[in-house]
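We modelled the chain as a single entity of 106 amino acids. Its sequence is:
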Amino acid sequence: MRLRCNIYKHDNTDCSNGGISHKHDSVVLIWDEDDMPETVNGTPVVKLVKRQLGGRVYLHAEPVNKPPKGCNGWMMGGCYIATSDSPFPNDYPISLHDRKEEVNQY
């Protein structure tokens, strides 16, 4: 499933350290697909990640590509994604984990 989503930023800012939300206002959210391109018609693609935390399912979105070499894994940069389309996989916005930091910054 593919769905175009808006990126929501607090006071129109982000703390992504140059991530997707720094340059774009929307993303394509993909889930339940094996083939995930990095962009769709010039819009960055993010994948839905489901994790089990304390007995609850936690959803977030992260870029389909791996962080650059020498960087930690993707982390929350202060932005969320959502859309009003009915197939959106959650009842509320999903955090966008597009922040990257070099190991020496962390």
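As a brief sanity check on the tokenised model: Residues 2-96 form one domain. The chain has a mean pLDDT of 91.
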